[in-house]
Give the backbone structure.
Amino acid sequence: MAINHLIIAVDGPAGSGKSTLARKIADILGMEYIDTGAMYRALTLKVIEEGIDPTDEDDVLGLLEETTITYENNYIYLDGLEVDKKIRENIINKHVSDIAKIEGVRIKMVELQRELARSDNVIMDGRDIGTVVLPDANFKFFIVASVEERARRRYRELVDRGEPDITYQGILQGIKDRDRLDSTRQVAPLYKSPDAYEIDTTSKTVDESVTEILNIIRGGK
Ligand code: CDP
C-alpha cells in the first residue's frame, strides 16, 4: 500500500458496528481512530446538564461558544473533563440527533475533525465522513445491519452497562427515530457515498467484517 497519508472514512447508522470495526482496523493498521459521534454526544451532554432545550438552536449555539471539546488518545474531553462513559448513556442517544442537525454545530465539529485528520493516518467514523468531512478519503466504508439487529446490539450494550429502565422496544424505537432524523436532516444527512464499499454486518461476526474490510484495503484500489 503506497499511500503516505492514509485516510479511511466509515459511515453508517446507529448500532451498525462502525465504531467496533473502525477501532479494530485502527489497531491492526496502526492508525488513529477518531469517533466523531463522541463530539456531538459531548455537546449534547453539556446541553442536558445545563438544562437547555436541545431543539432551541440559538441557545445551543450560545452554549457551544463557551464550550471546549477535544479528542485526545481516543478519549473525548468536555471543558477539560474526560466524559467517555457519560456520553454513552441512553439519555444522550435520545437527544443527540437534535443537536447534530444544527448547521452551526456541524460547522464547528467538521473543522475540528478535519484538523484531527491533517497529520496522522486516520480512520474516522460518523455519518458524513465520506460525503462531507473527508470526501477525498483513500477508502470509504458504509456499514449497515438490519434495524432489529442494531437495536439488539444497543440493548445488550446498555443492559451490560447496568442502565436502568431499558427495554428492547424502547431502544428499537429510539434507533428508528434517530435513523429518520439523521437521514432526512437538511445539513449533511446520512447516506452512502457512491464510492463507498457497503459492508452488511447483520449476520457476520466482528472478525468476519474486519477481514472483509482489510481485504479491500490491502487489495488497494
Ligand atoms: O454509536 P452510534 O452509531 O449510536 O452513534 P454515534 O456515532 O455516536 O453518533 C451519535 C449521533 O451523532 C448520530 O445519531 C448523529 O445524529 C450524530 N452524528 C452526526 O450527525 N455526524 C457524525 N459525523 C457523527 C455523529
About this structure: The chain has one domain: 7-206. The chain has a mean pLDDT of 95. The first strand starts at residue 7 and ends at 11. The pocket of cytidine-5'-diphosphate is lined by residues 14-15, 19, 36-37, 40-41, 96-97, 100, 126-129, 178, 182 (CB under 6 Å).
